[in-house]
Please model this.
Amino acid sequence: MTPTAPSLPRLTPQELIAFEDDIAHEFNEARIKAPVHLTSGNEEALIAIFRDVAPADWVLCSWRSHYQCLLKGVPPDRLKAEIMAGRSISLCFPEYRVLSSAIVTGVLPIAVGIAMAIQRAGGANRVHCFMGEMTAETGAAHECMKYARQWDLPVHWIVEDNGRSVCTDTRQVWNTPTLSHEGHHDPRVTHYAYRSRYPHAGAGKRVQF
Ligand SMILES: Cc1ncc(C[n+]2csc(CCOP(=O)(O)OP(=O)(O)O)c2C)c(N)n1
Model:
């Protein structure tokens, strides 16, 4: 499959924020009949990460993926149409090499499988797999990361640490001030911390679907 984006767009933090603000408005006006998971405060971090993402690379995401889709080259109007149709929670654009799952850890074994296929084909492209910090603490995440490391698979794992698993403090759950991927210097893992002004899901208003 040939990626349709010859080069990735250079978006500014303001453009990302404006897109998410527009979706928040649509959601609060009850024009989206399905959950949305919005983000903020991580624009600079994601823009920096995407400087190292090639058009032929795969980007795998969770339920919270609007920024990643935009940065991977999905046209904003196409992305918005999918969100308005109720598919924000599991956005997939294979032609842009973006896949998402709303299942905690859902994309992690898929990242391993794609990376294995790339390695067997002798490809030079990579997989960038995004996950929340609670997802990164699960057994499935540890196994996928260990397998990819041991087999030298071309996966870059990105742990997006907003401190919370829905409404629960992740560090409190594990009774530790330091999570598994903080302060380590594994070049295959990027950990960044951010605080979002949006709740886990929705845009702050209770909306009846
Ligand atoms: C297998 C499974 N269990 C539970 C859920 C419900 N759920 C959705 S998001 C989430 C918390 C994930 O926290 P984290 O990985 O830190 O991601 P964040 O949403 O904070 O970015 C949970 C438990 C789910 N989607 N899938």
Q: What stands out?
A: Strands lie at 58-61, 98-100, 127-132, 155-161, 164-165, 168-169, 189-193.
